[in-house]
C-alpha cells in the first residue's frame, strides 16, 4: 500500500520500507568504510617495511581524510541536482582500488596519491548512498540506523581484514588483494541499481518555514567542539596501533587488534549515545563524553599490556557517544540551512583532525608515541569547556502529557550522512 509520510522538513511518497534495498546500501556502506579503517591499519606495515617516519605514516591519514571530508560537500551538491546512482558503486570501487594500489610501489608520493584516490572514492560514495538509503527507508529511523551501523561495522573490521590479508600475503604488495571486496560489491550494486531504479522520492516541502532563527554563535561553538573531538579521534586512529605494536612491544597483530577494539566499541558507543541523549539530553551526553574520554585517554597512555585494551575499549566507547548528537545539534542551530550545517559538521570540521595528524606524528618522531597521546589530552578539556557553554536550541521533549506523534512531527529531520 502506498501512502505519503511527512516528517520535519521532508515528505516521502512511496510504499513501506524497502528492506532489501536498505540492506544493499548498508552492505555497500560497510565495504566502503572498511577501507577507511584499513588505512590506519596499514601504517605499521609501511613503517616496518619501508621505514617511514611516524610523520610520513600520519601523512597518509591526512591524504585519506582531506579528500574524503573536504570534497564530500561537492558530491553532495551534485547529487542534490542530478540522479547519479552510479556514484554508489563507483565510489566504493575507487576506494578499494586506491587502497589496493597503495602497497604496490616504493614511492611515497605514489602511495600518498593512491590513498588520496581512495579518499575521493569515499567522498563520492556517501552523499548519494545516504540519500538513496533514506528514500528506501521511507523516513524510518530504524531502517536508517541499519545503514549507519553498516559503516561503523565496516570501519571496525577494516584493521583485522588488513592483518588477515597481509598475514597470508607477506609484504605491502599484498594490498592488491584488499581491493577484491570493493570490486565484487561494486559490480553487484551497479547491476541491482541499474535493473531496479528506486521508486521512493525524497523532496523538500514547499512553503514551510522553521519557527526559529539561525543561531550562528551556537553553531560556531558546536563546530569548534566537533573540530577538537576530530583531532582526538584521528590522533588515536593514527597512533594507537603504532603505540601498542612498537612502544608497548605488542607486535603488529596486537596493534591491529587495539585499533579494532577502539573502533568496535566506538560503534557501540554511537548507538548508546543516541539512547542516552533521548533520556538526558544531547549536550549533557556530549559533555560527559569529553570528560570520560580524558580519563580513558590518560589510562591508555599509562597502562601496560595486556591491560591497555580495557582503557582503549572504554575510550572508544565514550568518545563516540557524541558523534550523531553533534549532527542534529548543528541542524537545530541552523534550521534554515540544514545542508550547510551537515556539510560542516560531517565534512569540513571533521577534516581538521586529519590535518593535525601529521603534526602528532612529527611530535612522536621527536619525542615518543606516549608523549603524542598525552598531548591529545589538551584538546579534550578545551572541547568540554566550549560544550559547557552551549545551550540546546531545541525545547525539552514532553513525556507523560505529549500526544503520540506530536514529537515526531515537530522534530528536525534526522541526519542521513555517516560519520567515521
Please give a structural write-up.
- There is one protein chain.
- This protein has 420 residues and is mostly helical.
- It contains 16 helices and three strands.
- It has a three-stranded antiparallel sheet.
- The protein is globular and about 55 Å long.
- Residues 1-14, 199-209 and 396-420 have low confidence and may be disordered.
The geometry reads as globular
What is the H/E order? EEHHHHHHHEHHHHHHHHH
Our Rg estimate from Cα atoms comes to 21 Å
- Approximate helicity band: over 70%
Major beta-sheet overview: 3 strands, antiparallel
Proportion in β-strands: under 5%
Can you tell me the residue ranges where pLDDT is under 50 for at least 5 consecutive residues? Answer: 1-14, 199-209, 396-420
Given helix and strand content, the structural type is mainly alpha
Total of DSSP H or I helical runs spanning 4+ residues: 16
Question: In angstroms, what separates the terminal alpha carbons?
Answer: 36 Å
Strand order of the largest sheet: 1-2-3
Question: Could you tell me the mean pLDDT?
Answer: 79
Q: How many strand segments?
A: 3
Features of this protein?
420 residues; mainly alpha; three-stranded antiparallel β-sheet; 16 helices; 3 strands; globular; disordered N terminus; disordered C terminus
Amino acid at each position: 500500500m502506498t501512502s505519503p509520510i511527512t516528517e520535519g522538513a521532508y515528505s516521502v511518497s512511496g510504499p513501506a520500507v524497502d528492506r532489501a534495498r536498505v540492506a544493499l546500501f548498508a552492505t555497500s556502506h560497510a565495504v566502503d568504510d572498511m577501507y577507511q579503517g584499513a588505512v590506519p591499519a596499514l601504517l605499521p606495515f609501511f613503517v616496518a617495511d619501508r621505514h617511514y617516519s611516524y610523520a610520513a605514516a600520519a601523512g597518509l591519514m591526512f591524504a585519506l581524510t582531506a579528500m574524503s571530508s573536504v570534497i564530500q560537500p561537492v558530491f553532495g551538491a551534485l547529487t542534490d541536482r542530478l540522479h547519479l546512482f552510479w556514484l554508489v558503486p563507483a565510489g566504493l570501487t575507487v576506494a578499494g582500488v586506491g587502497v589496493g594500489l597503495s602497497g604496490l610501489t616504493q614511492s611515497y608520493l605514489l602511495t600518498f596519491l593512491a590513498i588520496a584516490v581512495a579518499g575521493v572514492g569515499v567522498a563520492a560514495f556517501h552523499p548519494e548512498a545516504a540519500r538513496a538509503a533514506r528514500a528506501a527507508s521511507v523516513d524510518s529511523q530504524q531502517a536508517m540506523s541499519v545503514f549507519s551501523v553498516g559503516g561503523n561495522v565496516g570501519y571496525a573490521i577494516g584493521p583485522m581484514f588488513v592483518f588477515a590479508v597481509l598475514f597470508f600475503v607477506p609484504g605491502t604488495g599484498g594490498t592488491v588483494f584488499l581491493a577484491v571486496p570493493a570490486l565484487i560489491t561494486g559490480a553487484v550494486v551497479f547491476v541491482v541499481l541499474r535493473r531496479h531504479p528506486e521508486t521512493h522520492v525524497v523532496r523538500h516541502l514547499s512553503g514551510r518555514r522553521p519557527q526559529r532563527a539561525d543561531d550562528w554563535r551556537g553553531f560556531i561553538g558546536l563546530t569548534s567542539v566537533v573540530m577538537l573531538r576530530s583531532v582526538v579521534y584521528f590522533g588515536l586512529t593514527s597512533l594507537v596501533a603504532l603505540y601498542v605494536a612498537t612502544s608497548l612491544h605488542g607486535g603488529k597483530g596486537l596493534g591491529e587488534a587495539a585499533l579494532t577494539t577502539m573502533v568496535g566499541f566506538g560503534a557501540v558507543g554511537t548507538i548508546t549515545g543516541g539512547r542516552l541523549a533521548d533520556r538526558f539530553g544531547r549536550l549533557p551526553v556530549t559533555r560527559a563524553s569529553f570528560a570520560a574520554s580524558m580519563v580513558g585517554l590518560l589510562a591508555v597512555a599509562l597502562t601496560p599490556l595486556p591491560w591497555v585494551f580495557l582503557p582503549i575499549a572504554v575510550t572508544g566507547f565514550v568518545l563516540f557517544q557524541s558523534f550523531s548528537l553533534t549532527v542534529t545539534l548543528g541542524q537545530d542551530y541552523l534550521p534554515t540551512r540544514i545542508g550547510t550545517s551537515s556539510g560542516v559538521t560531517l565534512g569540513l570540521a571533521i577534516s581538521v583532525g586529519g590535518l593535525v595528524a601529521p603534526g602528532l606524528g612529527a611530535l612522536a618522531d621527536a619525542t615518543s608515541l606516549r608523549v603524542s597521546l598525552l598531548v591529545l589530552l589538551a584538546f579534550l578539556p578545551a572541547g568540554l569547556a566550549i560544550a559547557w557553554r552551549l545551550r540546546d536550541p531545541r525545547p525539552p521533549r514532553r513525556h507523560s502529557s505529549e500526544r503520540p506523534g506530536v514529537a515526531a512531527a515537530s522534530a528536525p529531520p534526522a541526519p542521513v550522512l555517516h560519520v567515521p
